[in-house]
């Protein structure tokens, strides 16, 4: 046989490996059937008096804990019955169900004991799944309980999520019964943070008093150590004097000593809390220069800041917890998701997301129901395709969502009532995150303006054309439209072409009007009086505002921009340039 023929023959008969997927699944199913039938079981595990007949081989294959038990010289390796300590019988039953079937059932009422069992038995998948489940269920009603558990077992992702929620909702959570169940170390961990959202430092003192009085005899001796975490330098002298006269302080001489000799003298450099320095601001982002400007016309405050340390910003959003997120260009085919740490004044990299295959014409970052969504619009030959990706803040994972193919162009996407809306003059589409599906709704078919503005407030969506000559409101629950009164503009403004942008500040609908003329600029800020059905103008001096992204509203920690916050007429930005 020729050399070439031998090589061809050898290639044809080269050994190959084949994997029988049905065998893999069938094998586990057969093992589960044997367990249910009570066949070939060779060991009985006893937990809190309950007996669980099992197979040593199956247990050893699933758990390093059992593998060490049954393959070593331990007495249990030879016993027919093994008593397990430190486990809940019901939870062990759930663990066995997972070991034999590969299916894990998790609920809020059993996730903690299930995690404990998995931690003892060294079942990484069960433990990690329980961690993710807890992280996804961090809410105001659960955060204290989950924080205590995560603190004991050092579940960092859950612990961090709980603390962030406690900081942001401290006033409400500090008045709950769960708050009084914290340990002294957990209490001081919470009240020592800058991020605490309180308007007055006396709120922290009131929370400490409530915690101590919940179990006065056991906790009073902790008061001196706790007091060092209260920022008395942020209180008035009258507040401090009243605290020195409080019965708890007078009862324990050590407490008054701490206040006088340690706190008042040594803690004068403690920074303000987030809540003390935070104000609601409208944020205008200029993507072309990575500059963010914030204004509050009612307070007469503004700030401006450039971010040269991050790539070009494409879109921005604010979550219900006032976290500011942006999408920034990482490369030609990837975007970076960044979170702005207001207390430190720095951007934190959270994740990366691949751009869609067809280069998008428009890209948006949106916050819906505690998750972030990346929406990109790509123009095809006869239609536009809206592609959607969902980012889970707790699991740090992206997933593809249902896409929408339509022939519409209109305003930017809007979020209302936990759903995402796309509106044009002839179509209205609604995306439901729960169903991962797009639905058609009643469109505003009476208008044919090519450029629109819009904003959501509660369960309503307000729309207008760019020059603000009409305003319509859509009721997302009733699926119906109605017209609102328009602004009665002054006669001297009749010939001025304004560009309008909505924003919601302090739960009131506002519109910012700008004629965008550098040589003869006119600006107005209007607020809608819903009771009277009229637009009223605010008396405010505004800085020059240019932006590429739709304005968003967030509570901004003003000390985080150092001395760059001032009255609108005299505010300076990070670089020292006037706004």
Features:
579 residues, alpha+beta, Potassium Channel Kv1.1, Chain A, Neuraminidase, 2 domains, 5-stranded antiparallel sheet, 29 strands, flat, disordered C terminus
Mean pLDDT, as a whole number? Answer: 83
**CATH architecture verdict of the largest domain:** 6 Propeller
Q: State the domain count.
A: 2
Query: Major beta sheet, specifics?
Result: 5 strands, antiparallel
Helix content: 25-40%
Could you name the CATH homologous superfamily of the largest domain? Kelch-type beta propeller
Distance between the termini: 86 Å
Number of strands: 29
Low-confidence stretches: 563-579
Separate helix tally: 18
- CATH secondary-structure class of the largest domain: Mainly Beta
As a whole number of angstroms, the C-alpha radius of gyration is: 31 Å
Biggest sheet strand line-up: 28-4-5-6-29
Q: What global shape is seen?
A: flat
Determine the strand fraction and express it as a percent band.
Answer: 25-35%
Write the CATH fold name of the largest domain. Answer: Neuraminidase
Structural class: alpha+beta
Produce the secondary structure layout.
Blueprint: H1 3-12, H2 21-37, E1 43-47, E2 50-54, H3 56-62, H4 64-70, E3 81-84, H5 89-101, H6 111-121, H7 124-136, H8 143-153, H9 156-168, H10 170-174, H11 184-191, H12 202-214, H13 216-219, H14 223-227, H15 237-244, H16 247-251, H17 253-266, H18 274-277, E4 278-286, E5 291-296, E6 301-306, E7 313-318, E8 324-331, E9 334-341, E10 346-354, E11 362-368, E12 371-379, E13 384-392, E14 397-400, E15 404-406, E16 414-416, E17 419-423, E18 428-432, E19 437-440, E20 452-457, E21 460-465, E22 471-475, E23 480-484, E24 499-505, E25 508-514, E26 523-529, E27 534-537, E28 552-557, E29 566-567
Parallel strand pairs: 1-3
Antiparallel strand pairs: 1-2, 4-5, 4-28, 5-6, 6-29, 7-8, 8-9, 9-10, 11-12, 12-13, 13-14, 13-15, 16-17, 17-18, 18-19, 20-21, 21-22, 22-23, 24-25, 25-26, 26-27
């Amino acid at each position: 046989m020729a050399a070439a023929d031998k090589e061809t023959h050898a290639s044809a008969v080269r050994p190959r490996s084949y994997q029988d997927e049905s065998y893999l699944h069938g094998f586990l199913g057969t093992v589960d059937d044997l367990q249910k039938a009570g066949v070939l079981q060779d060991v009985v595990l006893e937990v809190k008096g309950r007996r669980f007949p099992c197979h040593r081989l199956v247990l050893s294959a699933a758990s390093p804990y059992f593998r060490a038990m049954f393959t070593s010289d331990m007495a249990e390796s030879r016993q027919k019955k093994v008593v397990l300590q430190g486990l809940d019988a019901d939870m062990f039953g759930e663990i066995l169900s997972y070991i034999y079937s590969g299916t894990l059932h998790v609920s809020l009422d059993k996730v903690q004991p299930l995690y404990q069992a998995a931690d003892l038995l060294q079942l990484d998948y069960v433990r990690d799944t329980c961690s993710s489940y807890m992280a996804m269920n961090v809410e105001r009603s659960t955060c204290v309980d989950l924080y205590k558990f995560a603190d004991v077992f050092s579940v960092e992702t859950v612990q961090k999520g709980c603390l962030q929620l406690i900081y942001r909702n401290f006033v409400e959570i500090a008045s709950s019964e769960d708050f009084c169940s914290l340990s002294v170390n957990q209490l001081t961990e919470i009240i020592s943070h800058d991020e605490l959202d309180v308007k007055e430092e006396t709120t922290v003192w009131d929370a400490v008093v409530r915690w101590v009085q919940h179990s006065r005899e056991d906790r009073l001796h902790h008061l001196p150590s706790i007091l060092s975490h209260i920022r008395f330098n942020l209180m008035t002298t009258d507040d401090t004097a009243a605290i020195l006269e409080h019965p708890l302080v007078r009862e324990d001489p050590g407490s008054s000593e701490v206040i006088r000799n340690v706190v008042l003298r040594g803690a004068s450099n403690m920074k303000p809390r987030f809540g003390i320095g935070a104000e609601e601001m409208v944020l205008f982002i200029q993507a072309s220069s990575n500059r963010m400007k914030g204004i509050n016309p009612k307070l007469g405050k503004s700030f401006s800041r450039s971010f040269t340390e991050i790539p070009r910003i494409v879109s921005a959003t604010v979550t219900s917890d006032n976290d500011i997120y942006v999408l920034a260009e990482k490369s030609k085919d990837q975007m970076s998701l960044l979170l702005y740490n207001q207390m430190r004044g720095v951007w934190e990299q959270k994740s990366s997301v691949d751009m869609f295959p067809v280069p998008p014409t428009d890209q948006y970052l949106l916050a819906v129901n505690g998750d972030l969504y990346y929406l990109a619009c790509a123009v095809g030959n006869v239609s536009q395709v809206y592609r959607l990706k969902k980012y889970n803040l707790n699991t740090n994972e992206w997933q593809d969502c249902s896409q929408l193919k339509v022939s519409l162009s209109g305003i930017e996407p809007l979020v209302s009532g936990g759903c995402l809306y796309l509106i044009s003059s002839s179509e209205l589409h609604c995306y439901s995150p729960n169903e991962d599906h797009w639905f058609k709704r009643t469109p505003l078919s009476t208008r044919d303006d090519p450029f629109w503005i819009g904003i959501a407030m509660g369960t309503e969506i307000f729309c207008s054309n760019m020059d603000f000559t009409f305003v319509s409101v859509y009721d997302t629950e009733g699926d119906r439209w109605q017209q609102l009164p328009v602004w009665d503009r002054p006669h001297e403004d009749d010939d001025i072409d304004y560009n309008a942008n909505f924003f919601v500040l302090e739960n009131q609908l506002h519109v910012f009007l700008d004629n965008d003329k550098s040589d003869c600029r006119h600006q107005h800020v209007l607020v809608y009086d819903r009771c009277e059905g009229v637009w009223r103008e605010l008396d405010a001096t505004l800085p020059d505002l240019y932006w590429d992204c739709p304005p968003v509203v967030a509570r901004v920690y003003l000390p985080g921009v150092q001395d760059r916050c001032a009255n609108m007429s005299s505010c300076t930005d990070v670089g020292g340039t006037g706004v």
